[in-house]
UniProtKB/TrEMBL annotation:
Sorted UniProt keywords: Cell membrane, Membrane, Transmembrane, Transmembrane helix, Transport
InterPro entries given in the database record: ABC-2_transporter, ABC2_TM, ABC2_TM_bact-type, ABC_2_transport
Topology term for the membrane: Multi-pass membrane protein
Protein name as catalogued: Transport permease protein
Family to which the UniProt record says this protein belongs: Belongs to the ABC-2 integral membrane protein family.
ABC transmembrane type-2 domain location: 137-363
Transmembrane intervals: 21-40, 171-196, 224-244, 250-272, 284-302, 342-360
GO molecular function, one term: ABC-type transporter activity
Native source species: Peribacillus saganii
Ranges in a coiled coil: none
Location (main, coarse): membrane
Pfam family, any one: ABC2_membrane_3
Amino acid sequence: MRAYRQLTLAQLRIFARNKQVLFFTLLFPIILMLALGSFAGKGNNLSLTVGVIDSDQTAASKDLKELFKKHEGLKTLEYEKIKTGKEAVKNGDIQLLVVIPKGYEAKVRNEKQAFSLSVYYNEKNLAASELGLTVVNGIIDQYSKDLVGYTPLVTVEKVGIEAMNIRYVDFLVPGIVAMMIMSNNMNGVAGQISAWRERGILRRMQGTRLKASTFIAAQITARLLLNGTQALLVVLIAHFVFNIDVAGSWLSLLFFIILGTLAFMSLGFVIAGVAKNPESAGPIAGFVTFPMLFLGGVFFPISNMPDIIQPIVKILPISHLSSALRETMNLGTSFLELGTETLVLGCWLVGGFVLASYVFKWE
């Protein structure tokens, strides 16, 4: 027990003394989360801005402008000159420009004469332009029906359903936690163990009464403390900066942090056993971890990936770890409902340590 405690403290001191370790294991993921969360945190919200030019300046034209301003899905800006409005469309400041021509009120009063309003849009941003045109057409169509007193036979009853508002930053934070767990335990374990082997530290440990199980238990404990601290820091910073809360159980979150740590540690020991020296351990770990950053649902939803790689993605440990953390933090899913994620991570854990027992070398 004393050897286990001393090895654990020694490993924690190594983490604390190495400034690069502190930066890349603690600060870098937090900086990445803040940067991506700030720039793309509200990326799921589509804003439509419409410019209006009132060349008529009458009561009728003001009524029409009020309809645009009252619409919940539009932000309305007023311009005095058509040239200025067109420049705003070209620059992307607004998606549409509606021009109310001079003589608008007189034409409205003449119900026998139909006329058109000019609407300018950006041809290079068709998605937003088409959506904006649909909204504007709906406003004008309803306004025209009200002018002539038209009563439709069939109407639409709007029934809203309150759904969960999952922002990109809500999706991102659990992925950052999963990325840290993977990086710390695959890159960190592989590099450190291979370096100790080359320097003869492992050989000297083997010559003592130290058991392999004590050595591995100390590594696991130290890295669990590191990963737990990281996860807590990320969640706290995300809470204060982006107003993110853990919807599910903290015990479930802790369970998956422990399970993910063990699964990726086992893979780190495998890489440490395969690598002949510290110089080769880093590239091997990078070769394994780098594709998983993009295929494991850390930054992008797995469902958006091509069908041809879906079978591969669904067996990666990082995809199930990020999914379990996301379900727990964002949706509050019960631990009992995450059996698939638990089973897959458990298989990687057992399979990794079994393989590591065959390839691991003390010298």
